[in-house]
UniProtKB/TrEMBL annotation:
Designated name of the protein: Thioredoxin domain-containing protein
One matching Pfam family: Redoxin
A GO cellular-component term linked to this record: cell envelope
Lineage, uppermost ranks: Bacteria, Pseudomonadati, Pseudomonadota, Gammaproteobacteria, Lysobacterales
Compartments, as annotated in UniProt: Cell envelope
InterPro entries, A to Z: Redoxin (IPR013740), Thioredoxin-like_sf (IPR036249), Thioredoxin_CS (IPR017937), Thioredoxin_domain (IPR013766), Thioredoxin_ResA/DsbE_sf (IPR050553)
Length: 187
């Protein structure tokens, strides 16, 4: 490819990335309604009101199993993110502050990184968080899909009640100060 062709390709890629970021930050993805359900068919994964399957487990960053059924008894907020996801990174300080405020009896917070272990370790070196991080490779059957993220977009957050029932879902980043109101509304 010629030098001119390389520059044209680079400019086109930068424009596409800028358009995508503008749509994301403009709220387009977060405000887009879910695809309509087909009559007689359920969307993939859990929906509000479903109880998490007993066998749904995540893998902690250190490789140990993290069965979600063992966390029942207190509400649980699971935030699905990736180190390369700009909106995920932007909301991380809000999640960290919320998790720190919860104490031993409040809402438990877990981050689920759809990423490589190396990238997550490097990210946490720069931006440590006070809550556990689970990890798995992204894919069409990852845990975020099981938790109702049929589109596979990030960030994606679910709130599970103390009995293990999916209480609510949010696609897109939290605005500053939004998490506490979202998590506590309707509980």
């Amino acid at each position: 490819m010629s030098r001119r062709g390389q520059w044209a390709l680079l400019i086109a890629l930068a424009a596409a990335a800028g358009l995508g970021a503008g749509l994301w930050h403009g709220g387009y993805f977060a405000a887009t309604p879910a695809a309509p359900d087909l009559p007689g068919q359920r969307p993939p994964g859990l929906v509000e009101g479903d109880i998490l399957p007993e066998d749904l487990a995540l893998t902690a960053l250190d490789g140990t199993p993290l069965p979600l059924s063992a966390l029942r008894g207190r509400p649980l907020l699971i935030n699905v993110w990736a180190s390369w996801c700009a909106p995920c990174v932007e909301e991380m300080p809000e999640l960290a502050a919320f998790a720190s405020e919860q104490g031993d009896n409040g809402i438990q917070v877990i981050g689920l990184a759809l990423d490589s272990p190396e990238a997550v370790h490097a990210f946490l070196q720069r931006i440590p968080v006070p809550y556990p991080i689970a990890i798995e490779p992204p894919g069409p059957a990852d845990s975020s899909v099981a938790l109702g993220n049929a589109r596979g977009l990030l960030p994606y957050t679910v709130l599970i009640d103390a009995q293990g029932r999916l209480h609510k879902r949010k696609l897109g980043p939290f605005a500053p100060g939004e998490i506490a109101g979202w998590a506590n509304r309707g509980n």
